[in-house]
Amino acid sequence: PLTHVGAKLKPEWMREVMLRGGRQRAYLSASMPQFGESQVAHLVELFARVDRLEDADIPDISEPKPLKQAGHQLIGTEGLSCVACHDFNGQQAAGPGALDLVHSTERLQKNWFHLYMRNPSRFHQTVIMPGYWPGGVALRKDILDGDSARQIEGLWRYLEDGIRAR
C-alpha cells in the first residue's frame, strides 16, 4: 500500500524509485514499474502534500556522540538485537533478512522513523517487528536513562553514518 508514503520516504528516494528504478528490497522479485518522468514525477510532490502525520517527539541534541554510541549498542546483540533480523551493511542477518539498516536514513524521513519505531504495527498491522517502546516506555531502561525519544534518536544518529557505521 502507498498509505503515508509521502510522510515516510524522502522525496529524493521517491524520485529514485519512481524515475530510476531504485529499490531497497533486492530479495523481492517485484519492482516499481517505470512509467516515465513526464507521467509520474509530479507524484513525489503530491504524495508529500497529502501524506501528513503528527510531529514525533524528537529531542534536540547538542552532543550526538553519546546517542550514536547508544544507537550502536541498541542495534547490536547486546541491545535490542536489530541485527538478528535485519541485514546490516551487506552482512546477512541470521533471521528472515529484513531491510538493510544502513540505508534507513537515506530513504526515510526522520519524523516517520520516530513514529514507526514507537509503534511499528500502527503502519503495518502484520509487521513482525516487535515494539520496543510500548506505550512510549523503553524496554531498555539502562540505555540513555530509559528515555524512549533519545534511544530512537540514538538509532537514527547511528544509522546516519550509513555504510560507514561500525
Provide a quick synopsis of the model.
41% of the residues lie in helices and 0% in strands. It is mostly helical and 166 residues long.
Q: Which band does the percent of strand residues land in? A: under 5%
Strand tally: 0
Give the low-pLDDT segments. none
Estimated structural class: mainly alpha
Sheet having the most strands: none
Q: Mean pLDDT, as a whole number?
A: 93
Distance between the termini: 33 Å
Query: For the CA atoms, what is the radius of gyration?
Result: 16 Å
The ordered H/E elements are: HHHHHHHH
Number of helices: 8
Instruction: Summarize the amount of helix as a percent range.
Output: 40-55%
Morphology:
globular
SSE layout and pairing:
Elements: H1 5-8, H2 11-20, H3 37-50, H4 65-75, H5 104-107, H6 110-118, H7 120-123, H8 148-159
Helix pairs in contact: 2-3, 4-8, 6-8
Give keywords.
single chain; 166 residues; mainly alpha; 8 helices; 41% helix; 0% strand
Overview of this protein structure:
The longest helix is centred in the N-terminal third of the chain and has 14 residues, at 37-50. This protein is globular. With 166 residues, it is an all-alpha fold. It starts with a helix and ends in a 7-residue tail after the last helix. Helix content is 41%, strand content 0%. It is built from eight helices and no strands. The chain has helices spanning 5-8, 11-20, 37-50, 65-75, 104-107, 110-118, 120-123, 148-159. The mean pLDDT is 93.
